[in-house]
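User: Fold this; tokens only.

Assistant: Input:
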Amino acid sequence: MPPAPQEVLTAVAPHVPAALVDPARLRTIAGWSRRLPPAFNWLGFECRLAAGDPRIDFAGCCEAWDGGREQLLAALARDPELCGPGPAALVRAWPREPVLKDSPSVWLEFDFVGDGPPAAFAFLCLDPACANTFRAHRGAERPPLAGLVAAAERGATLLLGHAPSARSIESLRRAAEALPASGRALHVAATPHRGGDDLRVHYALLARDVPAWLRQIGWPGDLATAERALAAIGDEFRQVGVQIATGEALRPVLGLEAYVARGPADFPAWQQTFAALAADGACDPEKAQALLGDWWGHTTVSLPGAPWRVAVHRQFYVKLTIDGDHLQAKAYLAIFPRYTLL
């Protein structure tokens, strides 16, 4: 089973840039994380990169294969208010219902707003071949479309507390059906705590395929801004994540995520991406410098509750949100704790 989140956060706290995560907020999240069970192979902070925007969210990915799911279920039995009714319903149904049991992971995200407890929502992974949190095994067959749509509809029903609109599921299906051969439909989420019943669906595509795919599915947003965002990300990022929002219709908001398992020292494209985002006004140069200079790396530590030493890998990835002709940038400070005998 994974290490305890609170112990992992204690280990990484000295490396968290204050320009990205206010130290007082870090202490709040670390203290609250004592409620979380040892169930997450990925943890991370979501940081807004615009100047003057200090909002921070926190997330974890629970994978089914190593006992994390059982730990999360046990934690919900002890603490039913841990993650809100929709995510809790999804986690409880995950190992039991045939349409969900092949999902390899569930993500939980916690929105920390003000001084109260965080509001939670969840992503259900739709692809049994998902090799890690971001992409599927290379060369693996895509799951049958009917099964993928059934899992998405059932997961969305649990997360919302009622059935999603037929149009939102049809939009999800059409978008998955229109994917090029290298594309995958990876996750579905719902965020009713933000005041709506829309679904958020995450796909993975080659960057070069994104504009044509958006046209094919009838995305109603500003395609020129989406292409500007792809240009800011740059050509070195071969595959990107694409998040669309759908309800009674496709929404014009779009998310684009860039990730690669190499840091600034050996992947110069990161510098180019952040320079482009700063020039566009989407990223505070001070925050970009803190991210590029202070975060990426790893340490091997002994944690009080861990049976072996833990290599704690610190990485990041970037998300651009397109809303009209405006770009917003976020960085995810990703934390991967892995047991090691060294």
